[in-house]
Amino acid sequence: MQADKAADLFKRAAQLGVYLKPDTAAKLLRLLDELTQWNRAYNLTAITDEESMIAGHLLDSLAASRDLVGTRIADLGTGAGFPGLPLAIVHPDKHFTLIDATAKKVRFVAHAARALSLGNVTAMHARAEDLSPDKPFDTILARAVTSLPALAALARPSAGPGTLLLAYKGQRPDDEIAALPRDWELVGVRNVRVPGLDAERCIVTLKYRPGMQP
Q1: CB 59 within 8 A of CB 154
Q2: Residues of 171-190 as b/e, b for ≥16 C-beta within 10 angstroms?
Q3: What is the pLDDT of residue 170?
Q4: Helices 22-42 and 103-115, interaxial angle, to 10°?
Q5: For the chain, which residues score pLDDT lower than 70?
Q6: What pLDDT is stored for residue 48 in this prediction?
Q7: What Cα–Cα distance (Å) separates residue 118 from each residue in 170, 199, 207?
Q8: What DSSP designation does 140 have?
Q9: Which of helix, strand or coil describes residue 83?
Q10: Checking phi first, is residue 140 left (phi over 0); if not, alpha (psi -120 to 50) or beta?
Q11: Is the N-terminal amide bond of 86 cis, ω within 30° of 0?
Q12: Model pTM?
């Protein structure tokens, strides 16, 4: 049964251009097992059935896989670890810092990283606007956090020249794009079709240009 689930996940991820190794698919499914166990006690996510979690957590997270640049990745408002944990499983060569202001969610992220032997994950209990990393991140991720202008302000303390901000959105947010501060340049908007998710999705990519007035 687990092998069948892994094979199905492999096929569906391939539709996103993400080609999983057998052990990678198994780790992604085990992540959902860990989430299900913790969710009974800590109410980490409203999505509870397995099929919805595969589409709405795993595959939706992997939609931005090809857009990552560099090796230092931040996930702002990671919640229960999405999109950061699935992407960390798929990209063991990159380091992911998963940040959230809710302690129980950060505890789960740290637990999942240990349980899955993800040495490339750091769980951080903090508010995005209070961050002051030693070095800017190469890519900053945000899934269902806030509007683009507000997100740009939250990401600014963690960004440096050329940092990319990848925002997971539903419909193309033209009004939000028009209101972006000047120090964030729109690189592009890529529509994605997430297998099993009956909803519009796009990835908005911004680039930080310090020196331009916000």
Answers
A1: no
A2: eebeebbeebeebbeeeeee
A3: 95
A4: 150
A5: 1, 213-214
A6: 83
A7: 29, 31, 28
A8: E
A9: coil
A10: beta
A11: no
A12: 0.96
Instruction: Work out the number of other CB atoms within 10 angstroms of the CB of residue 150.
Output: 12
pLDDT at 213: 67
The encoded tokens of residue 22 equal 């057998």
Residue type, 87: L
Dihedral sign for Cα 71, 85, 172, 136, please. Answer: negative
Helical ranges in the chain per DSSP H:
2-14, 22-42, 50-53, 60-62, 84-90, 103-115, 148-155, 174-178
Instruction: For residue range 70-88, list pLDDT tens digits in order.
Output: 999 999 999 999 999 999 9
Q: Cα(193)–Cα(213) distance, rounded to whole angstroms? A: 35
- Strand 201-208 to strand 184-192: parallel, antiparallel, or no bridges (unpaired)? antiparallel
- CA end-to-end distance (rounded Å), the chain: 53
| DSSP β-bridge partners for residue 205 | 166, 188
Helix (H) or strand (E) holding 164: strand 164-169
What dihedral do alpha carbons 9, 14, 18, 20 form, nearest 10°?
50
Residue 17 falls in which region: left (phi positive, over 0), alpha (psi -120 to 50) or beta: left
